[in-house]
DNA sequence: TTGTACGCGTTATCAA
DNA sequence: TTGATAACGCGTACAA
């Protein structure tokens, strides 16, 4: 009941082990005749070469590790699909580790990848820069990530220099600008932003503030404790708290915003929920823009205008870049993709 | 710049490679003195044992493969978290393969796992039963899956016998019954079901029909082409199509349902959207129950009553079961967990 | 083209 | 307890 080895295949095909090895790596210098014999033997024996042995003997394992923050994040799921696509087509298998769980188990994801002898790593979540450097294999950063001063990616990411660890991401600040431009184009001037913690939210918020100032509007940011629907709903009330209402037409009070940019789709839903609870008509009295173009944005009940980063494509490019780093000598180059606005029914011109 | 090996550690600690190996597997039969010396050497050399070599030399790789249908499915993501938890704590690393992508790349996920020499597989998606059998390693089925007549799990799954491949799942038919009982308890009698393709939807629908008949009500099932919000919305209109309305009070027309059980949360949202488009008040004129207790069910805007299967726990148990099969002689036993109803605001007593 | 020998980093099996 | 040595399955020369 033992697994067949390359020796068994060679014997059955009546050739040497070397030849079998050559067929496996489909070398061009084997006669069609012998090749067929070998392939037939492999089929008959139901032979599958061992990646373990190949990795041990060879110079690479044809596997890469992906460090992920949170599996429930749909952004990652999409990016992961793109990653898998470009990596699998290059013959690389993928193993994943999420930082949350590993932290819970007090297991450094990078240590796991070291033990696995991966040929490269994709950083889609926080990982110790020092650990990555010690790993000694190519790495790419996938998506926006908090970049500390000592980050492996350096500071030049996207600014023209080619860092040791390229950053492949969507330009999320540009996404924030897009949202503001869209709302301003509809005629809105009092546009608020519901933001939250994390690097992505930070970039999106930054783009929002930039564009607001560019247009001569006053940025108005409210930050939630988390980037969730509930957290956004909890703080959205502040948007109306000090504002002029029918009951409170005091001087000095600020006019309430007519539009809100939420840094992700669930938070946009939270804002809509809060608005409805406060008796404001949606979308007539409050336009809302989300971010990520998640499935829920397309729900008829919401029909959310949102910013799409095409994370699948970003993931695919990250995979390509990593493979080129592993296989070639090409110097890695960071990429930043421009997002686009998906217009739906949650944004309309302001009332009056 | 080469990686340190077990030889280096042995030399530095002044012991044999065998002893280092024993320390690695923390065997009880090594003197505390030597052990400390070895550990110190490992630390100083920044040594990480190679899983490749260990797998090649040993009898197992301490890795398991997970076959997944669709990564975007939140159910899997939750279950995966549970799986990772129970497997990682046993020292097993995980590699995943989704059938959709692999099919696209014409790559049999099981073949990949064979090459990786995994110690076991978790089937959370469709996989060729024959391929699994040929793999020759323990396997568990995670979640409800279409069971063909020749399925590896056999037919006895959950019916008292212990099949070769145990099934660890939530009792989804019971979930359907729960939903009906809840609605009936509120006073509803005309309860419809919006179902779709797939094993899970089938089980949920079956539970619905069972319970409806038990209560003496007439089952009323409408099936969507997919299990998505859009597909559900597209067919929900049928629920009111032939029904008695103010404009069409013809004899023989059927009364419209006062409640709907959708086989998942997005579909429930689709039903609500369709109801609103048809001018029916929600939830006053139409109560809706979803399934899976996905994050969106908790959104204030929806506040969906839903059935929760606690997939994380199911995943965790699947991991435990697989580990016990790999390591022990315990005979595997299928498990079926009872779901629970999460009551929110989308279900109310019928009008009048 | 083919055969041969060796190395890859561990575990497993015996001896000591 | 410890240590030597043989697998483990394959890549990579190198020589034939």
UniProtKB/TrEMBL annotation, chains A, B:
InterPro entries: HTH_LacI, LacI/GalR-like_sensor, Lambda_DNA-bd_dom_sf, Peripla_BP_I. Residues 4-58 form the HTH lacI-type domain. It comes from the Bacteria. SMART domains: HTH_LACI (SM00354). CDD domains: HTH_LacI, PBP1_LacI_sugar_binding-like. Keywords: DNA-binding, Transcription, Transcription regulation. Coiled coil: none annotated. This is LacI family transcriptional regulator. It comes from Leucobacter rhizosphaerae.
